[in-house]
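Exercise 7. Given the components listed, write out the predicted structure of the assembled complex. Treat all entries as one system.
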Amino acid sequence: MRFEYAPAPESRSVVTLRDSYGLFIGGSFVPGSSVFKTISPATEEVLAEVTHGGPEDVDRAVAAARQAYERIWSAMPGRERGKYLFRIARLIAERARELAVLETMDNGKPIRESRDVDIPLAAAHFFYHAGWADKLGYAGFGPSPRPLGVAGQVIPWNFPLLMLAWKIAPALACGNTVVLKPAETTPLTALMFAEICQQADLPPGVVNIVTGDGATGHALVAHPGIDKVAFTGSTAVGKEIARLCATDGKRVTLELGGKAANIVFDDAPVDQAVEGIVNGIFFNQGHVCCAGSRLLVQESVAGDVLAALKRRMATLRLGDPLDKNTDVGAINSRAQLEKIHLLAQAGESEGASRWSAPCQLPDRGFWFPPTVFTEVSQAHRVAREEIFGPVLSVLTFRTPAEAVQKANNTPYGLSAGVWTEKGSLILWMASRLRAGVVWANTFNRFDPSSPFGGYKESGFGREGGRHGLEAYLDVLGGGDV
Amino acid sequence: MFSAVAMSEVSDVSVAAESGRIAVRKTYKLYIGGAFPRSESGRSYPVTDSSGGFLANAALASRKDARDAVVAARKAFGGWSSATPYNRGQVLYRVAEVLEGRRDQFAREVRLAAGMPMDDAFAEVDAAVDRWVWYAGWADKIAQVRGGANPVAGPYFNFSVPEPTGVVAVLAPQDSSLLGLVSVLAPVIVSGNTAVVVASEKSPLPAVTLSEVLATSDVPGGVVNVLTGRVAEIAPWLASHMDVNAIDVSGAPGALADDMAVAAAENLKRVIRLPGGDWTAEPGLERMFGYLETKTVWHPMGM
Amino acid sequence: MVLGDPGGIVASDTSLRRFLHGLPGVDEVGARARADTLATRSVKADAKRQALDLAISMIDLTTLEGQDTPGKVRAMCAKARRPGSGAPPVAAVCVYPDLVPVARAVLSSGAVLSSGAVLSGADGEGAGNGQRSGVAGRVRVASVATAFPSGRAAREVKLADVRSAVAAGADEVDMVIDRGAFLSGRYLEVHEEILAVKSCCGDAHLKVILETGELGTLDNVRRASWLAMLAGADFIKTSTGKVAPAATLPVTLVMLEAVRDFLVLGGRRVGVKPAGGIRTAKDAIRYLVLVYETAGESWLDPRYFRIGASSLLNDLLMQREKMETGRYSGPDYMTVD
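Answer.
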């Protein structure tokens, strides 16, 4: 019997969108000199007008952050700073539904993911870090580690509110103040977060949100008035930032791209491995730095695993991100969609076999069907370059040693997955994979207490956990993590 | 003699005389398994304020009440210890929220118990709330500070994790009816242990009001159990109880504490005995870590 | 892997054990996570209406109490074929063997309504305007057997139990596997017992109850599922309903994966029946989603999927009522029998 799920759209009415948003500087929304529009990538409709932060706006924001740092925040006992963060955590949880719907509208990701992953993790991140604010002496960095000062933070569009939480929570917990620039295509939840800061009575200037584009981000990162740069985004821009800050004494942490290997052995729990492969590359439309974009499957089971994978992919539901049954949402922007098409084309022209899950693409908006390339080798572009879309490249291996070799054969090193029932093999693999996060028999699991970050060109520094505090503390020389 | 202020708070006669309204006075019972029973012995004892004026009758717990409390604590242990640390942290934070909401009520009770000025009473309540918040924030960090991977010489992955020890009996400090109580209770439950608390004998009322807060803050029934009564009567039964895993005797007077420590040896309870001192100072880790076991796991790393 | 020589697999305890333990393992955390995600599916409007009726038509309406009497069974059977307000009949009733004749009598011949009207014989003509279920003709009679629920009795006694149920007119037999034998690794014995029961069934179709709540792990659920299917089960069923936990979504997920894989390897379609603990329409719809997205739409049919339940029917009827009238209903408006 055919079982059609009727449309089950989450209502947009829970969100009150303003027509126009200013910059959040010194505790209030202030106008700037120019504006730009943010659209819904699923429908291409304009959602709101947002202010573009020019160099003078960045100046103002840094000044506000510096003032708040010197006059209020750095002197405030950790115990009191922590209570502000607890308030923010609770407010995010209270306004969870609004935030989830807004995130989906602005980013294009399915409402199920914003609701069940992004927003709860963002609240948890603040809750976890709130507790560190008055316990920094126990974090392993000395008895009374000091903050750095003002942090300039630039975040990407793939997990807008969650990336904001990953940046702001530890910075504030450690006693810094921040100027954060959200991604150009996804400013709205950051602006709602600014309202939450107001509701929490956070002292003005502790958090400043300057919306804008790459130039705004550059102005912020290059600003002489900040002590610390934290960036999540592409490896190319990360390298620019590293060059820029190489000689100016700023502390820098970078969380960049990846081309993770998801390794499936012949004794893997097959049904769960297939879920892990699907989750690894199609969760968030593949817009995930740690996505399992290369499937390394043991040759002896490759046929079976691929058959099971294709069967599973055929049940993925692509469509309206606000529909509660949608699994695969919209690609975040036209620009990103074009990049994905380009690399998929390269995959075909270089001789890999392409298969896409059959699905109906809506007329408006930016969409790409979940796609698999088989008969891929390390030489193919689709095996080496980060596509940042729902495209999986499948390679095979014969032995564990070969799996390690192929998995590590990349300039990236953010994450990896290992699927096998054998515990000792999991640990052997984990000890040899050059990746900052290894997921065994699972994938894409995040927790505020679990440090996240990459080896090699996936960046340096860790976010989350005790280790993640180091980025925001003045740890001189011998500070061991 | 009684001051005019003390009298009007101890006795609501003058209040009634002014407004004509008779107050509905609270009954102070035990808190066991999430419920508020009277002592099975049916006994109570008068609680007085710092000047000897009558405040209320509190339940006088018997050894059977103590026994029932241990059963309740044991029953609650499985669920509480297997909750995620994040969840425990949230529950403890919720306790702080509710406690803050009852700030006035607690300040009055603390003031009456200790005979301190109202400002000091408010300061104590604020410190107690902040103490809860401090411990709430520890829940999801203990494993990172107290556990970790061990670099053994061999192809093994080796890691140590802290685990809660089980049911903990706690003698609350005699002289700090709220802040001291909170300071000896929160470190027990934050890591997943469950508690049987013997409140301060002379100032038990804030402990009962705290139980009301716990009962309405998503703390599962049995995680905390509060007994009021004669410490010398019930504490020894807890010290010798074979299903109690640890005991904090710091709140008992010297000789009693000695006896309890000796009795505790029968099942090798972990014994916490720390000097009182200044409850407003930031606690160290000993109280929290004293109720933790450490489990070390080995696993080969190989094909 | 194709089951070229099933006989080779069941030639000995050792070969059977090697096969069953060679099946891919189940990661419990992953399986639960998949079941949880599928439970977030939102089925609304027309889809919900269809799903409610489908669920009703898949119910094995059950009474298995020591205190069952002919009167109780008659009342349940009347409700089974005419649940009320235009709902379709259920798939089957499920009773103890000694009450099978009572059930057959009600469900095979015309029954007299309190109004004095006589219902026609074959069910479906008088079934109101509800959607017909996939089971052609009358509501089936399923009987438990083999010393249900424990299964602890001598082989001859268990087979005699089956024979008596079939002779009394049971269309379906729900047997229990010997969990003691399974857990102590005597797989061949379990296999042979199922074969023996199947041979006593005649035309009756055989459901094999695994009693998943006693099997301990999802790996065991997978192995027991395959064992039953290799022995010729028409259906694999989760539970007797007498042991907690009874049916759960993760357990049913593993069983649906097993029947899906068995069709590919063994060429035969086996049905799945979760039983016990499914009380609300919401639960039932979650199971339908599980079937749809795991085994596929060909299993969404009372021939291949049943739900063993008693109180579920009323909740499905209440939800149906709400969809038609727009108002929440109450127990006073649902018949107890």
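Discussion: Residues 1-11 of chain B have pLDDT under 50 and may be disordered. The longest strand of chain B covers residues 156-164.
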